[in-house]
Protein 1
Amino acid sequence: DIQMTQSPSSLSASVGDRVTITCRASQSIIGYLNWYQQKPGKAPKLLMYAVSILQSGVPSRFSGSGAGTDFTLTITSLQPEDFATYFCQQDYSVPITFGQGTRLEIQ
Amino acid sequence: QVQLVQSGGEVERPGASVKVSCKASGYTFTSYEFSWVRQAPGQGLEWMGWIGTYNGATKYAQKFQGRVTMTTDSSTSTVYMELRSLRSDDTAVYYCARDPPGKDNGYDYWGQGTLVTVSS
């Protein structure tokens, strides 16, 4: 199975900050990497797929990059609604696996 | 608009089975596949398997092989996930997620989740 490791596990930031979350795969997943946002008590929401393609309706302050084993999610100018947990996901091979999550909290 | 509506929460005894449904609307049902993902309390996301709505083909995570069955009913645009021989560590919120055909598209719509509690 491909292991997905996110860092950091939690992060405190302020409105207006720029933050970066990293996701590392245990083997190359080429560009088969997606990002989700989850708020408490809600289902995950697709933010970005294929590394850097924004899902419809997702603000452009979210961006993604990377290839192979190392990927990043960047949020510029944090907004109050961005405080949530973020998960990466590889769909290169079965079983599909997710990172353990990064909890983004208000500082 | 696309909607995925799951069945309500369940409380089951260890050793029992549970069947969760996910009814889709707002699009052509057989044009998309489904995955099931679960989330134990306070934990991350765990992929359980996938089902093709066109032909009912399935792929299950090795961890659940032999205990899970996913089915589809195109007449009602509903997919089902049955998990048998329940244990306490199966307590989780179970989500269905729409899976566009092909790789690397992500799960673009999710059900609201169904809490399954396994307790004696």
Protein 2
Amino acid sequence: DTGVSQNPRHKITKRGQNVTFRCDPISEHNRLYWYRQTLGQGPEFLTYFQNEAQLEKSRLLSDRFSAERPKGSFSTLEIQRTEQGDSAMYLCASSVQANTEAFFGQGTRLTVV
Amino acid sequence: QQQVKQSPQSLIVQKGGISIINCAYENTAFDYFPWYQQFPGKGPALLIAIRPDVSEKKEGRFTISFNKSAKQFSLHIMDSQPGDSATYFCAASREGGGADGLTFGKGTHLIIQP
């Protein structure tokens, strides 16, 4: 296992289209987190899963954002009806348990044109 | 409300010097404080982390100093090298399920001049 894997690395989409990103966490990491990072800022927490349960989603930026983690393995983050303001780096992280070392993937860079 | 304040925003240090980055937090429930290093186009990489039961932690050239009463913590990079040039983020999280994930500072852009 080489770490947290995110796909695609880059995504360019037209405004109004739906996009989906995938995250494969480190094996046996129960916790999986999604963050958004805009230029010149630190990552901003969006949501997290404990195994397959999504325990916090109130920080998702709007109802256009949704995330899933079927079977407690990989996770997907979907953005519907994309807007230019959604352009950012979307980061996934995983950890063994709460409040412990979290390891990030390389991120997916989204550009909405 | 920014819960973790980081300074300076940018820092230039000569090769071999000491780089110091500071963070202050507001939420006294925070009890885990990691530092991340990020290169352009890459995800953040965990450098070192500390919990409030110790005042200092050292790993190689990296040291975290922690002052619980002042609600401040800092990263010291000894013998700074050009390869250390990157953006550094402090972060904090709390017990109780980590429902907020990590709260990050805004980052420090560090340049090590050869």
Protein 3
Amino acid sequence: GAVVSQHPSRVICKSGTSVKIECRSLDFQATTMFWYRQFPKQSLMLMATSNEGSKATYEQGVEKDKFLINHASLTLSTLTVTSAHPEDSSFYICSARAATSGGYEQYFGPGTRLTVT
Amino acid sequence: GDSVTQMEGPVTLSEEAFLTINCTYTATGYPSLFWYVQYPGEGLQLLLKATKADDKGSNKGFEATYRKETTSFHLEKGSVQVSDSAVYFCLLDDMRFGAGTRLTVKP
């Protein structure tokens, strides 16, 4: 099946610095990618929807200037957490949508655990 | 806006017990509906899906029927196994997740 990778899988950064997380669709083209964050023992919260070549659409309450999303190609989307603070520590998951004959399939990355110290 | 409401749990069952996890949705139009599973330490995996009313998705002994009249997509399994212990998420096709239900199956 289709594979979505994320890099890095874990990152620790100091408060005030920025960190970039990559999401790649390895064997298919994804016109749409989604970014989520997941707190321990909680559900996934949709942060933004990213369409290739256009600006991301952010969910209400998500700061677009803090969580910068770039979807420059059909196989890569990046999430940059700017001026990170401890409250940004979380598990970030991306998903990519692949077109199929029956509509589409959605594939999820393994997630990136961000710890801000 | 569109949303999905899921029974939160946690749910603890004995092996071979019957499982139902409720999921209802609010949406304009006719969304596709999905169940995803997250095993301990692993990423999300698609369990089953349904794209239109009365569709039944099934996989690994799990089933869910898309019921437009009750706006529901409840997940069922007739006989759970210890290996089914995981967190189950209901998902609407605008990519909004339900709260997740943690299932623990005891031998």
Protein 4
Amino acid sequence: DSGVTQTPKHLITATGQRVTLRCSPRSGDLSVYWYQQSLDQGLQFLIQYYNGEERAKGNILERFSAQQFPDLHSELNLSSLELGDSALYFCASSTKLAGEVGELFFGEGSRLTVL
Amino acid sequence: AQSVTQLGSHVSVSEGALVLLRCNYSSSVPPYLFWYVQYPNQGLQLLLKYTSAATLVKGINGFEAEFKKSETSFHLTKPSAHMSDAAEYFCAVTRRDNYGQNFVFGPGTRLSVLP
């Protein structure tokens, strides 16, 4: 158990719909990362938050948005869903503060299926 | 910019044989390198990490990796493969940053272990 909790584990929805994925990082971790994993694209970095502020953006579509709340949990919002958005979405958190280096701890992912 | 390449999207070895998974990185600053493993339907788990201490890093489950700056490589090895090693392996590079880190993952190598 990595200590990172993601909900829901599985989600099936229709095209055009909107979903919210939730992530609770490990206790004390300030950084939260979101990744998308699909068969054809591999593990793609979406976005990173550090203590409530956006710090880095990767290949995140404009239809997607995220935020990190004061209690450090994070939500990834996916809207106007398309078939190609079907993927496994991972949240990861990192324990290290500024100037240090630490590993990412991954949740078990949220599997999204868009029909 | 940092990048990671993993030679061989799929590697097959016999049980008891040497495992060698290749990782080469590109980084303009001293890198920090990681190997993660992903078992089916699970999140990524850290195998080992290099953070500028010893160049030969030992990880869990008998895996180890050697950082070779001259070759910009961080190959993962295990002397004797076990059936339970069958999984997807990801190499990742990051650098020290003021607000956390920017992790870049390789495309992954799927390891099959044949009886």
